[in-house]
Amino acid sequence: MQQHVDTAVLDASALFATALAEVAVSAPVGQWLSADGTVRLDIRTDGTYAGKVAGRKRRPQGTYFLAGRTLTLSDDSGLHTPVAVGDGVLEMAGHRLGRTA
Questions:
Q1: 29-76: pLDDT as tens digits
Q2: pTM given for the model
Q3: Which residue segments constitute the domains of the chain, with CATH numbers given?
Q4: Most distant pair of Cα atoms in the chain: their distance
């Protein structure tokens, strides 16, 4: 019995497009701050985060998970907050955060 093997022939542009499709967005590690200074977020390389929100006594902290361009913050209290990851900006709960210097 002869086995059939499917093969695909890709030209250079198809290979390039395939390679680009495989590039994943990396977690936006670092410190982030809203323009008005009311929200601060520190995203760490170990998969955890800590934050500060003006007017809140309890500081948010927990773990995060990145799927595509959405970073989901999972607070120790059980709250899950989606964060849209853009080019040099994070958007969450009506706040737009930029990297701190």
A1: 999 999 999 999 999 999 999 999 999 898 999 999 999 999 999 998
A2: 0.72
A3: 25-99 (2.40.128.290)
A4: 73
